Amino acid sequence: MKTSCRQTSTLLRTPLGDLTPAFRAHMQDCDVCQSTYTELLSISKSASDLPTPKWSPARKQSVRDALLASAHATPSPPSRPWRVWVAAAVVLLGLGAMFLTTRHEEPVATAQAVMRGTVHPSPGARYTRIGSSPDEIVRLYQGHITVEVQKLQRGERFRVITGDGEVEVRGTAFEVTANEDRMTAVRVLHGRVEVRTAAQDVVVLGASQRWESPNEPPTKTPVQVVPTVVEQPPAVIEEPARVHPKTNPRPKPNNPAPTTPSEAELRYQEGWAAMRESEFSRAASAFEAVIADPTSALVQDASYWRAVALGRAGRKSEASKALGSFIQTFPDSPKVAEAQAMLGWIHLENHDSAAARKAFEAAASSNVDAAKKSATRGLENLNATAP
Amino acid sequence: MIGKLVPFRQTTGQPESLSDDALVAACGAQDSAALGALFDRYADDVHAFVYRIRGIDDGFVDDIVQETFLHAFESASRFRGGSSVRTWLLAIAANTAKTHIRGEIRRRERGVAYVELHPKDSQRPDQAAQDHELLQKVQAALDALPHDQRVAFTLCDIEEVRGIDAAKSLGIRQGTLYKRLHDARRAIRTFILGERP
């Protein structure tokens, strides 16, 4: 039996797929080469079996957004037919998430988070994604982003939030500009947009309309390139996307805005992650931590979701107090009707018919369909059981 | 009569339905939608490949994946179809990763215990233990390889790319690739089998 073969070196340097028929014939008669070949196969197989870390859809989507933004910034031939000015932001009036508050209709935190929107940041834009469906939030600190949003399902919301306002969208695309954490402009291509700022009443924009902050000098709309095909976000996201550092070359403003999520925003993410895992008490604690920072733009949302989490955790008494506090503190919130309906069901469960009726009637008089339906059913229930 | 110039588009249809070559051609015309579709098609493969040639997901992997597709976008007009689009992308990823080579030193400093290796449930305990040990050795051996050898091994022995395609995509001579593959295999065998080089 041979102990060496001069052709083994040939085998060692040749990709296995490149081995010639002649060499394969040689291996039939050469134990040394056959043995070496088997070893190489075994090593190759082991190397192939080595695990690779799972690439989360959120990180992948972040890279994709960043890539397309970078590609947009790449100079291209002047004859490009689709290279157009875009200054458009299309936002439809959000109907507000309809997470009803009853045992049957209360908000359901999905097991897996879903992202409905795709963000196309302009160079220099700084943003982060905080929530995911059903209450997806893009927190914009600085610069200009175009967002395309898939048609939202009932009860889903999509918003862009800055330090002083928010824009709510429904199933379309829109463009928002911020300067040092202040919303400066929103532009609509088609559909409708609802812009809410702390300093102003709600402004509803129609197709081709533009809103500019009165505190900001008129700015020229930055050049944007719109992809010829709307990029679809992944169906399932596992974690909030991070802002990709490569894509967001940072401008150097005199007073730079934060580039990473604040503590409150991180806790808000934690709250939602816990909701998705059905760990409602933990979620309530996380949302409570958000509320502890009164300067956070998420206080209102966190207050509502804390109440929802408490209700889902079975802590009805605390949920009742939290809902009451939310309704009192944020009477203009689009969530108020849902909170009232939820409160009504909790009162009903506690056999407090008078309080339940009051809450249901308030919800039924709102223009939020799902809240109205829930409240109507609650009132029917009350009437059926009335002595 | 005054003529009108109509922009010429090489491709038609939705990017998602285009062949690989057509997608790259569209990228060559700076069609960002095609870039998105190309990313959707191969991002996972490129990500796994970049991880394999780096051995650690230290935050640079995402950057390298992004740069890979951006380089592909910028150089798509020069793609001649000499290899498959997938191989072309992996080669771009390999060259892009090389610029992050400083991570090589960092990876070695951090050791090789990064990946948790699990035996298959269906295996006998003794066989599982053996396989587990082999996997750990292979991982350690790969981590010790210089970048170019690791790329050659990953492309040829894991991704099963033909030598001529791998060499062409990497922009090196076939003999150079064979040399790197030889050195990589020898180093791995030495590490695993205790064979003298």
Describe the structure.
The complex is a heterodimer of chains A (387) and B (197). Chain A has helices at residues 8-13, 21-29, 31-49, 57-73, 263-276, 280-291, 299-312, 316-329, 336-349, 353-364, 369-385; strands at 117-121, 126-129, 135-149, 157-162, 165-169, 173-179, 182-187, 193-197, 203-205, 210-212. With 387 residues, chain A is an alpha+beta fold. In chain A, strands 1, 2, 3, 4, 5, 6, 7, 8, 9 and 10 form a ten-stranded mixed beta sheet that branches. In chain A, helix 6 (280-291) packs antiparallel against helix 7, helix 8 runs antiparallel to helix 9 and helix 9 (336-349) packs parallel to helix 11 (369-385). Chain A is elongated, with a radius of gyration of 28 Å. The model of chain A is unreliable at 74-112 and 218-258 (pLDDT under 50). Chain B has 197 residues and is mostly helical. In chain B, 66% of the residues lie in helices and 0% in strands. The longest helix of chain B is centred in the first third of the chain and has 23 residues, at 32-54. In chain B, 42% of the residues are buried. At the A-B interface, helix 1, helix 3 and helix 4 of A face helix 2, helix 3, helix 6, helix 7 and helix 8 of B.
Give me a quick take on this structure.
Chain A is built from eleven helices and ten strands. With 387 residues, chain A is of the alpha+beta class.
Keywords summarizing the entry:
heterodimer; A: 387 residues; alpha+beta; 10-stranded mixed β-sheet; 11 helices; 10 strands; 38% helix; elongated; B: 197 residues; mainly alpha; disordered N terminus
Described by its quaternary structure, the protein is heterodimer
Q: What number is the mean pLDDT of chain A?
A: 71
Kindly provide the radius of gyration of chain B, computed on alpha-carbon positions and rounded to a whole number of angstroms.
20 Å
Low-confidence stretches of chain B: 1-13, 103-122
Distance between the termini of chain B: 78 Å
Overall mean pLDDT of chain B: 76
Strand content of chain B: under 5%
Euclidean distance between termini CA atoms of chain A: 101 Å
